[in-house]
Specification:
The complex is a heterodimer of chains A (446) and B (760). Helices cover 50% and strands 13% of the residues of chain A. Chain A has 446 residues and is an alpha+beta fold. In chain A, a hairpin with a 3-residue loop joins strand 1 (43-47) and strand 2 (51-58). Chain A is elongated. The longest helix of chain B is centred in the last third of the chain and has 23 residues, at 639-661. Chain B has 26 helices and 30 strands. Classes of the chains: A alpha+beta (446), B alpha/beta (760). Chain A binds chain B through residues 1, 3-4, 6-7, 9-16, 18-20, 22, 28, 115-124, 147-149, 182-183, 186-187, 241-242, 245, 248-249, and chain B through 168-172, 174, 428-429, 432-433, 439-443, 454, 457-458, 461, 464-466, 469, 471-472, 474, 476-487, 492-494, 570-571, 587, 589, 619-621, 691-692.
């Protein structure tokens, strides 16, 4: 039995899974003949019949890319691509860890297609798509790995383009695309580009805003639900690596055409999504060109985002507007509570009090929070111990009701009740003391 | 009664005395010292002095000097002899001299890593320098991982994590790999057989990555006593190694006793080792002597724990614990801590506690059955032994031929050097697995070798399989999956069966895991599975999902399942005529099938009934050693006699072989054929219990004369009438209707060995 037979036998009995046999008549994909020194600029080239692009020479070799230009006014969603350029820097600082001086004009939008999702040094980025504005156009340049030996040249060329970027914009790029690319640079003992350049990963603000309203926050869902665009004939992500492996084996690049298109659309959606997010934070209330209004849920989430970043006035405005427009996915109580807390933070206690009162107006409310807040307000701000005592007693009644419903063993109900009893005792002491002080000053009967 | 008094009573008790076949006393030894080697940063001796260490033992001094000189070393020492300083000092010294330098520590288990980080940290803190050490394993929090990769001077991990978590992501560890000065491999003797073969390949991968980043680390290994520490270390790391085996640490007096349980019937049946061990350990525990009991199988751990708890009485029962693989990590940590603090008085363990896990030093060790190797027996015995005070290790012999051979030849144990650590890094299945991982980590370059000269041929095969792509003089990983994920270092199959306890159907919980072959006999449907002395009934084994569903029960029996194995020879690799028999070595395909299980009553061990097991066959391609008996040897034996003689001889050879192989008896299986397809003769096969084999069968082929000689000796010296578990197996098992199995085996062996000398 020779080595090969033994290897086969192992496969039959052991763990490795057989996959279809080698394709008949497999040939290597087309490779460029010209040497790097020959040409100074990129020259037109194609991969198979399908991909038309250019070959570019860099010191470490040659690489192939496909370039597609769109007018800056091109729309993929409610806003034109160019809208992203007119949003001021401070707005971006609300959406991610970016300095207010960020130059979105010189952003690079990045999306990669890879040979696997698991990461690790055996996973390659075979398509590195970069999008940027050039004058009146938006350029999508897609570096394509014709075969593994060209990887270093691809990375070097991409690094040159990336070097002009002042901010990197991705979707889930912080966890996936960028670490994977950094890994590729290190595999070639090169320093990854963009050190110190800010990175805006749209996944994070998108999650903050749409997490509650949408079943998931993938780019595809956001495209359909937020941007309102649909893809026809889109290649499912999980099939992409196999299409690339098939191309490497057969040299047939045609099925990759759809992969490149998929990547281009992802990049355009990135721009549109960024523009939409930018608009949300700069001008959340006016209707879109189609006359649509931002819904209450989104304003609620946006308000929380503002509050989280310390922008109290904007946060309160969004929450108030959300109340006006109405919410369904998010409960009214949550909205009231959030708003009252914001007013409290802003020291607009009258507004806060009004909301707490409103919350307690409905009969049989089981929400403890407004009573407790009111008790605190009357005690510490208004120094009206009688009113405080009233609120605290109501709170205790709610807490006891809650315990009856939750069962006597609920530790939270027990804690609530204990705290309220403390509060009541303290208030009674204070009331007694204030009475005795007042007693001393009571004017003599006329 | 303290230990000294206990030993005194043992000596005087005629009942016990009659069954003690050996009593060796190893005298106390004084310490021998050496200097702090020149070249050691003066802060190190100063810090050690603060800890009360004013000089080094001779082996520590020697080891540190060799490491400072840039030599790969292996230090061989018993437990508690200060082996950690042998590697910690050179590592800390290197970091003091150059804060950029890095070290990687490998321990076979997570538990050992946790022990070590505490020790390194306490020494590093005393040095007053900023030296950071981290445990990096599956339990490490994400935030710590980041810091560890960037700034960890000493990264402490296990082979599994290196395999799946570090090497495939080496670009995240640039700092470590660019500056890696030392690699520490502790518990080297653990890396035998399958695990060792995996580690050797993992280290091949590690060296490739280091080369890529331009570092050339020195390997510092430490090992318990085995026959070939230097050879094993050299095979594992693939480079020359300096051996340091003159231990300078002091030792208290130690007694080593062999106890052969009394005969209970005339067919040579003895009291079971389980019961005898329970009796002896029970006495020790009742006298508050902290004791560890080693059992041979997971099942016996549980049975023994149950027996001992019953013996020591209610008050102490909670201070007796079981410990074995399959328990959850926090359960184990709790037991280790209890032992160190003395809260736990007795522990019953499989060889899981043979490892250097810190449980302090106990006073007594009882081994229920010979652990299979001399090295392992010394390791287990080493668990008892406090510096400067007396300790005892008692080996309770089981009925197996090997245990009985030792009882009649104790000198074999006390005079012979321990066994060899065997590995086969070039086991095809293991090699190919790691070759894939290596290609994933860095493309192979044309002409590059990975351990074997046939590297290129294997790479080409992997390209045909569409896993690699050969282009531009390199072999690139060209598949979607992450190969390390599906390769387990601990066995050859990746997927274990998970045991799920649904005693409370609303809250099912994971009880533990078990390998597939073990699952067939331990958690088949209707088995009684024991965990921490608690019985669980297996409601259903879902073989497709690899899940066993159990619920807690309280029954008075346990189950014991039988595996039926058939074997198909594939190819003869070596063949010879020796000592009158035809001997062969080659590749075979085996198919194991669990057929029936017996219900056995607790304590009395009587058979209470049986049931069928419905599981698919488990096929395995492996290597075997076989002997075929020519007609001359079997002449005059009836078909029936011949059949039973084969069963008897198989039992005997399989029982004795592990002694020569330093393998666990479970690593080797056997079958017989009345007429083999190759030689067309009655044949007995011994084969490796792992896919593709780990080198045991080949070693048997080389040791054949010794094995046959020991077999004859065993049968001749056995006092039984017609076969017992200690020689050719009980008469009933051999299946002969007329008896005479022992005689038939003797006839065959005598005829065979009449031709040549008996070799021991």
């Amino acid at each position: 039995m020779d080595l090969r037979d033994r290897l086969r036998l192992l496969r039959a009995a052991g763990s490795s899974r057989p996959r279809g046999g080698p394709a008949p008549g497999a040939t290597a994909p087309a490779r460029s003949q010209a040497s790097a020194a020959e040409t100074a600029g990129p020259r037109p080239a194609r991969v198979g019949e399908a991909l038309q692009g250019y070959v570019r020479a860099v010191p470490s070799g040659e690489t192939f890319y496909v370039e597609t230009r769109y007018p800056a006014g091109h729309c993929r969603g409610p806003l034109p691509l160019a809208a992203v350029r007119s949003i001021p820097g401070p707005a971006w600082a609300l959406l991610g860890p970016l300095p207010p001086s960020v130059e979105m004009e010189r952003a690079i939008f990045l999306d990669t297609e890879t040979t696997g999702l698991s990461g690790g040094s055996g996973t390659y980025a075979f398509l590195v798509g970069l999008g940027f504005f050039e004058g009146n156009q938006f350029v999508v340049r897609q570096y394509f790995l014709r075969d593994y030996p060209e990887e270093e040249a691809l990375l070097e060329a991409a690094a040159e383009d990336l070097a002009s970027g002042r901010v990197l914009v991705t979707f889930n790029g912080k966890a996936f695309d960028w670490p994977l690319l950094e890994e590729r640079y290190r595999m070639h003992r090169r320093t990854p580009p963009l050190a110190g350049v800010p990175h805006l990963d749209l996944l994070h603000p998108s999650r903050r805003i749409w997490r509650e309203r949408l079943p998931q926050c993938t780019l595809a869902t956001l495209e359909a639900q937020i941007l309102g665009v649909l893809r026809e004939r889109d290649v499912p992500g999980e099939l992409i690596p196999q299409r690339y492996f098939d191309y490497l084996r057969t040299g047939n690049a045609e099925p990759l055409d759809e992969v490149l298109e998929h990547n281009r659309l992802d990049i355009l959606s990135l721009v549109s999504l960024a523009a939409w997010l930018g608009r949300l934070v700069t001008d959340p209330f006016s209707p879109t060109a189609d006359g649509e209004l931002v819904c209450g849920e989104d304003l609620f989430a946006l308000g929380r985002l503002f509050l989280h970043r310390g922008a109290l006035a904007e946060g309160i405005r969004c929450l108030e507007e959300a109340r006006r427009r109405g919410v369904t996915v998010v409960s009214e109580v949550r909205l009231q509570r959030e708003l009252a807390a914001a007013y409290k933070r802003a020291r607009e206690l009258g507004q806060a009090l009004a909301i707490w009162q409103e919350m307690t107006a409905g009969a049989g409310s089981l929400t403890l929070y407004p009573y407790v807040e009111m008790a605190k307000y009357y005690e510490h701000v208004a120094h009206d111990y009688r009113a405080a005592l009233r609120a605290a007693r109501q709170a205790l009644a709610v807490a006891e009701q809650r315990r009856r419903l939750a069962g006597p063993s609920s530790p939270r109900a027990r804690r609530d009740i204990e705290e309220l009893r403390h509060r009541l005792a303290r208030l009674e002491r204070k009331l007694a003391r204030s009475r005795s002080i007042l007693d001393g000053f009571e004017p003599p009967p006329a | 009664m303290n230990l000294e008094q206990f030993l005194e009573r043992l000596r005087r008790d005629p009942e016990m005395r009659a069954h003690i076949t050996a009593w060796e006393t190893l005298p106390a030894l004084p310490a021998r010292y050496g200097d702090f080697p020149p070249g050691l940063d003066p802060r190190i001796p100063a810090a050690l002095r603060e800890k009360g260490i004013t000089r080094l033992y001779s082996h520590q001094s020697e080891a540190v000097a060799a490491a400072l000189a840039g030599k790969n070393t292996v230090v061989v020492t018993p437990t508690a002899s200060g082996k950690t300083l042998c590697y910690n000092l050179p590592v800390l010294n290197a970091i003091l001299k150059n804060p950029a330098s890095r070290a990687l520590y490998l321990f076979p288990t997570k538990a050992l890593a946790q022990d070590q980080v505490v020790e390194v940290k306490s020494l590093a803190d005393r040095l007053g320098a900023e030296i950071k050490s981290y445990v990096y394993d599956g339990d490490t929090a994400p935030a710590i991982r980041q810091v560890c990769r960037q700034a960890g001077h000493i990264v402490i991990t296990n082979p599994d994590m290196l395999h799946t978590g570090i090497l495939p992501h080496h670009t995240k560890w640039v700092r470590l790999f660019e500056n890696l000065q030392y690699v520490v491999i502790d518990e080297l003797h653990q890396y035998r057989g399958v695990f060792g073969s995996h580690l050797a390949n993992l280290l091949r991968r590690l060296r490739r990555i280091c080369e890529f980043y331009g570092s050339h680390p020195v390997f510092l290994c430490s090992s318990a006593t085995i026959a070939n520490p230097k050879e094993l270390a050299e095979r594992l790391i693939g480079a020359p190694v300096t051996l340091i085996d003159q231990n300078g640490a002091p030792r208290g007096e130690k007694h080593f006793i062999f106890y052969n349980p009394p005969l209970v019937s005339r067919d040579g049946i003895r009291e079971s080792a389980l019961k005898a061990s329970a009796r002896i350990a029970g006495q020790l525990l009742k006298n508050d002597i902290q004791t560890i009991v080693f059992a041979r199988s997971r099942n016996s751990v549980e049975v023994l724990t149950t027996y001992l708890r019953a013996q020591v009485g209610q008050q102490k029962a909670s201070r007796v614990m079981g410990y074995r693989g399959g328990y959850r990590p926090n359960e184990r940590r709790e037991i280790e801590k209890g032992l160190r603090e003395g809260r736990i008085l007795g522990v019953v363990s499989t060889n899981a506690l043979e490892l250097g896990i810190d449980i302090g030093q106990l006073e007594a060790c009882v081994m229920c059955g010979y652990p299979g190797t001399i090295a392992s027996a010394w390791q287990q015995a080493g668990r008892a032994g406090r510096r400067g005070s007396t300790s005892v290790a008692i080996l309770v012999a089981s009925a197996s031929p090997l245990d009985q051979y030792l009882c009649s030849h104790p000198e074999y144990f006390f005079q012979r050097s321990p066994e060899m650590g065997l590995i086969n890094p070039d086991n095809l299945l293991i090699l190919v697995s790691h070759l894939k991982c290596a290609a994933f980590e860095l493309p192979f370059v044309d002409g590059e070798q990975f351990g074997v000269p046939t590297t290129e041929e294997i790479l080409a095969y992997l390209e045909e399989e569409q896993i690699l792509r050969h282009t531009g003089g390199k072999w690139h990983w060209s598949a979607e999956n992450f190969p390390a994920e599906s390769i387990s270092l601990r066995s050859v199959d990746a997927e274990n069966v998970v045991i799920i306890d649904q005693t409370d159907p609303a809250n099912p919980r994971v009880l533990g895991e078990i390998d597939q072959l073990g699952a067939m006999t331990m958690v088949h449907t209707n088995a009684v599975y024991l965990h921490q002395g608690v019985q669980y009934h297996v409601d259903r084994l879902d073989w497709g999902e690899k899940k066993a569903y159990v619920h807690q029960v309280n029954v008075e029996y346990y189950t014991d399942a039988k595996l039926a194995v058939t074997l198909r020879p594939l190819e003869v690799l070596k063949e010879k005529e020796e000592l009158g028999v035809r001997v062969g070595y080659g590749e075979v395909m085996t198919a194991a099938k669990a057929t029936i299980f017996k219900k056995i009553r607790l304590y009395t061990h009587e058979n209470m009934g049986w049931g069928k097991i419905h599981l698919p066959e488990y096929e395995m391609h492996t290597t075997a050693y076989w002997i075929s008996l020519p007609e001359r040897l079997t002449e005059g034996l009836s078909q029936d006699k011949l059949q039973s003689a084969l069963v008897g001889l198989g039992h005997l050879l399989r029982g004795l072989a592990p002694m020569y192989l330093m393998c666990d008896p479970a690593d080797l299986h056997h079958v017989m054929q009345i007429r083999s397809p190759f030689a067309e003769l009655p044949t007995i096969y011994l084969y490796d219990a792992y896919p593709a084999g780990i080198g045991l069968a080949e070693k048997c082929y080389e040791l054949h004369p010794m094995l046959l000689g020991a077999a004859l000796d065993r049968v001749q010296s056995c006092p039984c009438e017609d076969g017992c578990p200690s020689c050719v197996g009980p008469a009933a098992e051999a299946g002969s209707s007329t008896g005479g199995t022992k005689e038939a085996v003797l006839t065959i062996l005598r005829r065979a060995l009449a031709d040549g000398p008996v070799v021991h």
